[in-house]
Task: inverse folding
């Protein structure tokens, strides 16, 4: 491991100044892939809250909405209630395992392509190139003394960054309220304080992280690289400089003068110039590499210019590196992608996904839960009967009012009535309408003869009386005085 | 301590320690990290100036913003009072029955009443409003037995005027004679009455003693408790035929009651709690499971309008007591 240099490689001193990173523009397959992913992720991020979804008169029309006030999560046709949070937990677990899968297959590709930090940093770098010019111009400008011209450029750049940052923070809050209404409120200054505050925080983090801290976030602040690098193994495809092919390095001229003595690397430093984290991949795999593959594009371009085969820097596994060093061909990509580890991850991932889908398909949208009142546990009545009280919650998870019948079964001689009603109307069932998308809390009094077991079990059930139907039941205990 | 040196492969200085051949690199932190640390130090200084922070001998520094947690609480309480203002005045302005009929007001009243109950009533009636335990003498407010009536107006009247407050003209008042102690009945007579009462409440089978007791009961007790022992709510005389016994239904407890009489007292809350709170308490107590429907207003002696009749009713119980005295 002696050829691995830490990216914090530094002069002496406890604290190190950030080394400027001025990545050069590059073109190639991976750059275009990165463009495509950036377009998709940003598009999804900005457009999603504006999609409408008709849920009828009793529920919001926003396709994706995190309704914190009412503790509901709407996603197209799916509505998640707080007690169904396991769906969200399931999705998070899937995201985690998906990351294992992705990492064990293609290294830190999440970092390189889809991570918000990467996407916005990339966006900011394009703005930077557009205003300051490419790498060399940027370095020149950076080293130039402050003057009106530099200040003007800097202010323009920071202004555009800030505009993007505001739009970023601004888009986030639309996920939490009706987007068109909130947008109007935002501009008229009547939106809730927390909306402005959220925009401010996200604006500042985007501006600072995307504009100034960039790779520092990836290397020092983000916990993922520690975890992700631990998930790599020698079968994972990672960006690799094929030093057995490239070394020793020499310029084209020198190599022509001494055929057979030098490797393919012409030491043009293009791979270093394009790297968004400012590392030299030729020093081997390292924590600073986010597997964005821009160096592959850069080197491939160089190889094409000098008429040598592409892939001096390429996606390769550590196992391949050993094989190729010994002159054997590399494992086919498909074979490295489909190996036990990735297949197991994929199996777990899809099992959870199918499980969630199955639960989603079978969930009831009506629910009863009951809790016996404990203080007092029972009340003795003047005719000698015993009364228990229960706090019952009826859930109507549909977006319309539903008529429901609550009934009791299994308590001999038992009758019940709602807290607002009187014993005169006691029966073994009653009907009520539960408001759309809500939990109705009721007190139910149950009275039964004194004679019976000290603890009697019976069931409280709810049944929807409309066409869609659905029912649920809850077992409760009826208690009588001890001295029986 | 080994000497610090530059590590060849990384070009980084070592910290100078060595453990079994393992050395630690003195990798520098990024400089922004240091600046972030300084920023937190500066923030904490500003925070200490702005908010109460440093403990002094008998208090803490005041803080430039004048913020206190007590003041924040006062603000929050005031805001809460403002928020509740409209619904509280609605409750104040609405007659009891109408509050009970309005689902929203009723719920607010129940919540408010429950809070007031916890503060004022639990000491006697228990936190579950069940009179703490049977036979304790504190009525269970959840059952269906009411001494003075269980409809909204009666409960409200009881709350406002209390029970047996001698200093108060409108209070619920009745006196049961101490039949044994005052010599109205001899020991055997007391036991006979007890037998009778236990018989009509189904705790004992009829016997010679209960037959003797029947006559004594008719002569001494029926005036208040009714000929069949069914009780009289105007006088707060309990129904003796049911299964609920305020002071216990055992022979021993009943002997004690008939011998020495019982005089439960409840404070009057009309002058301690505001009218809205008393209303909410009435609705809360009524909602506990024993609440009764209101009788038609014209025949209800407990309505506020008819409250003037109460002193007359209060005077009445004295009559049988004196009448029973030879
Ligand atoms: S070394 Fe290559 S793959 Fe790694 S971060 Fe730099 S450019 Fe991207
Ligand atoms: S871009 Fe390719 S040829 Fe140029 S220095 Fe990097 S590895 Fe060598």
Result:
């Amino acid at each position: 491991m002696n050829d691995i240099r830490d990216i914090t490689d530094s002069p002496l001193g406890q604290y190190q100044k950030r080394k400027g990173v001025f990545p050069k523009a590059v073109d190639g397959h991976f750059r275009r892939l990165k463009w495509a992913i950036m377009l998709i992720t940003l598009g999804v991020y900005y457009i999603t809250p504006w999609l409408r979804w008709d849920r009828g008169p009793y529920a919001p029309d926003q396709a994706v909405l995190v309704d914190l006030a009412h503790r509901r999560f709407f996603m197209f046709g799916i509505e998640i209630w707080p007690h169904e949070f396991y769906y969200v937990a399931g999705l998070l677990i899937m995201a985690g395992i998906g990351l294992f899968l992705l990492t064990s297959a293609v290294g830190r590709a999440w970092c390189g392509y889809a991570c918000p930090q990467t996407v916005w940093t990339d966006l900011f770098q394009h703005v930077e190139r557009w205003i300051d010019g490419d790498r060399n111009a940027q370095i020149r400008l950076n080293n130039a003394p402050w003057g009106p011209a530099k200040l003007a450029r800097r202010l323009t750049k920071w202004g555009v960054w800030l505009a993007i940052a505001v739009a970023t923070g601004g888009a986030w809050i639309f996920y939490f309220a009706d987007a068109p209404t909130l947008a109007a409120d935002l501009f008229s200054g009547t939106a809730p304080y927390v909306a402005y505050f959220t925009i401010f925080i996200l604006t500042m983090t985007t501006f600072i992280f995307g504009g100034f801290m960039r790779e520092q976030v990836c290397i020092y602040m983000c916990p993922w690289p520690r975890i992700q690098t631990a998930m790599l193994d020698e079968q994972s495809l990672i960006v690799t400089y094929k030093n057995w092919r490239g070394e020793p390095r020499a310029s084209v001229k020198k190599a022509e003068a001494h055929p057979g003595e030098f490797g393919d690397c012409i030491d043009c430093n293009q791979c270093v110039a394009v790297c968004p984290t400012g590392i030299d991949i030729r020093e081997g795999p390292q924590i600073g590499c986010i597997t964005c593959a821009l160096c592959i594009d850069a080197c491939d371009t160089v190889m094409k210019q000098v008429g040598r085969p592409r892939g001096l820097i390429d996606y390769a596994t550590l196992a391949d590196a050993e094989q190729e060093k010994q002159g054997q061909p590399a494992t086919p990509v498909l074979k490295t992608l489909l190996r036990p580890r990735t297949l197991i991850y994929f199996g777990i991932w899809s099992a959870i996904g199918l499980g969630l889908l199955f639960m989603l398909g079978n969930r009831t949208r009506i629910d009863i839960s009951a809790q016996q009142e404990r203080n007092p546990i029972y009340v003795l009545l003047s005719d000698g009967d015993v009364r228990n009280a229960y706090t019952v919650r009826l859930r109507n998870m549909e977006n319309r009012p539903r008529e429901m019948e609550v009934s009791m079964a299994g308590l001999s001689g038992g009758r019940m009535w709602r807290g607002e009603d009187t014993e005169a109307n006691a029966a073994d069932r009653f009907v009520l309408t539960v408001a759309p998308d809500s939990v109705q809390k009721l007190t139910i009094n149950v009275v039964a003869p004194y004679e019976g077991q000290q603890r009697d079990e019976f069931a409280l059930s709810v049944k929807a009386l409309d066409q869609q139907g659905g029912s649920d039941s809850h077992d409760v205990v009826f208690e009588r005085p001890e001295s029986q | 301590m080994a000497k610090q040196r530059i590590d060849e492969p990384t070009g980084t200085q070592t910290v100078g320690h060595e453990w079994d051949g393992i050395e630690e690199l003195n990798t520098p932190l990024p400089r922004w990290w240091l600046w972030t640390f300084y920023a937190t130090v500066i923030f904490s200084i500003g925070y200490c100036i702005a908010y109460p922070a440093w403990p002094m001998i008998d208090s803490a520094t005041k803080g430039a913003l004048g913020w206190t947690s007590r003041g924040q609480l006062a603000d929050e309480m005031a805001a809460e009072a403002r928020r509740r203002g409209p619904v509280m005045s609605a409750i104040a302005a609405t007659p009891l029955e109408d509050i009970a009929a309005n689902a929203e007001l009723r719920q607010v009243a129940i919540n408010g009443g429950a809070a007031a109950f916890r503060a004022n009533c639990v000491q006697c009636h228990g936190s579950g409003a069940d009179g703490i335990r049977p036979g304790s003498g504190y009525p269970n407010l959840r059952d269906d037995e009411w001494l003075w009536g269980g409809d909204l107006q009666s409960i409200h009247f009881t709350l406002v005027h209390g029970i047996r407050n001698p200093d108060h003209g409108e209070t619920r008042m009745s006196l049961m004679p101490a039949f044994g102690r005052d010599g109205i009945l001899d020991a055997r007579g007391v036991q006979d009455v007890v037998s009778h009462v236990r018989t009509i409440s189904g705790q004992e089978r009829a016997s010679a003693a209960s037959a003797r007791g029947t006559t004594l009961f008719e002569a001494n007790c029926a005036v208040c408790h009714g000929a069949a022992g069914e009780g009289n709510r105007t006088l707060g005389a309990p129904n003796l035929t049911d299964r609920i016994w305020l002071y216990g239904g055992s022979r021993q407890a009943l002997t004690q009651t008939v011998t020495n009489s019982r005089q439960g007292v409840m404070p009057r809350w009309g002058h301690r709690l505001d009218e809205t709170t008393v209303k909410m308490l009435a609705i809360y107590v009524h909602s506990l499971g024993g609440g009764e429907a209101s009788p038609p207003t014209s025949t209800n002696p407990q309505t506020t309008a008819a409250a003037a009749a109460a002193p007359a009713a209060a005077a009445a119980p004295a009559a049988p007591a004196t009448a029973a005295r030879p």
Observations:
- Residues 1-12 of chain A have pLDDT under 50 and may be disordered.
- The interface with chain B takes residues 2-6, 8-10, 12-18, 213, 216, 220, 375-376, 379-384, 387, 389, 419-420, 422-424, 445 of chain A (CB under 8 Å).
- The pocket of iron/sulfur cluster (ligand 1) is lined by residues A 239, 274-277, 279, 281, 289-295 (CB under 6 Å).
- The longest helix of chain A spans residues 148-173.
